[in-house]
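User: I want to check something. If I give you two sequences, will you return the structure for each one separately, not as a complex?

Assistant: Yes, each is folded on its own. Here is the first sequence with its structure:
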Amino acid sequence: MERGKLFTVVLSSLILLGILSFVLSKDLRPNVSAHSSSNDWTSGKDLIWVPDNYSPGFYISGSYYYTDTTFLRWNTTSANNIKNSGHRYTQDNTDGAGSCSSEHFTSTGNWGTNFPNPDYDQDNDTWYCNTSAEEAEITSDYLSFPTPGTNYFTTMQWRRVRSGTGQMYFTSQLSNFQLLEWNTAHYDLLYTRNYTSSGAMKNFPMFNCFTVLSSVVFADSTPERNFTVEQNIQSKTDLESYKNSAIEKLGILRLNGVTKANVVVTFSSPQSPDRFTDFLKVNSISLQSFEMRAYDSSGQKITLGGTTDPLKAFEEMKQSLALSGLDGLGLNGVISFKGAIDVSDYEKLNGLPNIYLVDVTPEAYFLELKSTGEIEPGESWDINVNDLYWYLEQYHSGKI
């Protein structure tokens, strides 16, 4: 590829990744990243958070395509840098074909990781054609992440929209969910692997590019606004406080005449796929996505996600992880889901013994943003609220 064309492709992808994000938090922290003293992602005082072992891959299994980052591993210095920076870590994969006509992949919503307390998001960030969920990212929302020397992984499933050649981008970055991060510059590590019309990889090994982009680049090209509610749960008291606050938000919905609400539901214990499916039918709930608790042969906790059939998603992710060298995957059950419920059913659902919390925060926060003019008519937006199951596990094990 000619140098000028390569620059255009990379810049196009980077613009897609430049979505401004906001945080609703008790402790809003400013960006602490300084301008880099190096143009090499492997060095520089503010780039030592980059994983020491980073091996993104791209492969085909049946009718689906997968991206994986087996493995990401940090040493003590880089792990502490992430923790001390006040940021979370995000693994972002994008179909970066470079133009609307050559866009080939859309994320299915099936994914897996051993990140602690992961949050998955798939976006339509193609501001120039607005056609598909071509970007997917997994963020670790946990203050103790990462543990030095631990092998972390992510895997995401994609569906082919049309044949052709192009690029798949892998972006390793500190999370851009902090409110003031874009006041200065954005630092990330960008890899790209090329694929052919048959799906085979070419130009191996991958091209890598360290990027420093000013927030001015994205001032007038934000296709989807992302708002993230940061929960800041570090103790049993924090967990109970968040739960009580979420329940109280029901009053905001009723005050505004809301009859159908987007919610995040955390189960009190894992539910079998069959029981989960029956639960949705009996309560007439519109499903958007779900998360499952799984484990590998060593007993480590793994989170899997999907959008339709839990059992099918588990089998597909099991196959994907086996191809990455992770065998012996077992399933505990569905731990949470996002969907829409009738507000009139709230007390009934939230009072069920298998439910820990029906969280209406996404809907309540939307009303708040709308009333203050943060969300304008016709504007594309996304409100991210994570479930509480990871913290519930921590509570039951005596870790918080």
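And separately, the second sequence with its own structure:
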Amino acid sequence: MGAIRVWRVRIAPSSSRGRTAAGRATGKRRRTDMTDIITITGNIATPPEHKVLPSGIPVTRFRVASGTRKFDRDANRWVDGPTNWYSVSAYRTLADNARNSLQKGERVIVTGRLRLRAWENDGKKGMEAEIDADALGHDLLFGTSTYRRTSTRTPSAQDEPPADGVQEAWALPGASADGEPSWPKADVPTQPAPEAERISELADSAPF
């Protein structure tokens, strides 16, 4: 669980995408676009936030904590592995359905395009992993879900994420006075499951 597969990497030109206390862009950001689709499983760590961008495109965004467990033969027990954090963005119809279906703490499966955004501000550096979602759903290994169809039309290119991702500042990591990403407290419960399959107990707060 929680593993990702990445093959080819393309480095995009640098762009100014920092934040100030007033919310204006400053500093430097560099985006690395992964050309292959990845799939992760994890827990929604922040309440999904829905917004309609100035371009008219609806987007729902939330953080996912993807943890793993492995068996320690020396200790003869299962131990927690590292937790990876992702910012997930869903657009258009998927954004509307995610808004009405997903809540903080739920276990989900996410498939989409991985983007890595390197930020630098006042000598501080960091990396943000983002996924432009193509598909979202509950992980039925840990619970049940009921499907309700909302549309009969065939998905089209209009349902695809914007070519360069969301350009509005809202879609970048949460603003703080010094330009670093900041996220609300993540409080995700451990899911009940057999020891060999249950997810790792997540930290009380996100890394940012």
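Because they were folded independently, the notes below concern the second chain alone. Residues 92-101 form the longest helix (10 residues). Residues 116 and 129 are 5 Å apart (CA to CA).
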